[in-house]
Amino acid sequence: TPKLAERIHAIWYCLSVTDYERSITAAEQKFFGACDTKHVPVIVLFTKTDVISDIACIELLNKGYSFDEAQKGMHAHGVQMMRVLQAHVQSALGKCEFPPNGYVQLAGMNTEKGDSTSLLKCTTNALNEEALQLLLVSTQKTNIHLCVEWAVKR
Fold it and tell me: What is the pTM assigned to this prediction?
């Protein structure tokens, strides 16, 4: 539909990280392999990424680290685990006929300190119409940094 208010502007495709060792599902392969979203960008969101720290800690304990060592190393190991997971998903979905336009990792979104800046940046950059980009950025009263950054880019 030509009416701006009645169109879908972006699709956020959520992948939960709670099952870290998951493979790409048939539904995901079908969506990215057969669903031509035309001019609507699709962004993959890795949700609940804060759980990776716990998984990393358990992995380190299973490798023989003491509890204190595992606690100290779990953040860095978790970051590395997320890199590996994202690379795996990007590799698999990147081979599909209609790959995602971007990838974002979200953590702590169930708290007041949850930060969606990376999602807003990725979404803004993925939008294919400058009017939509301006609309999204201009509504971000709580994220003045994004407004200024985007204005400088343009």
Answer: 0.78
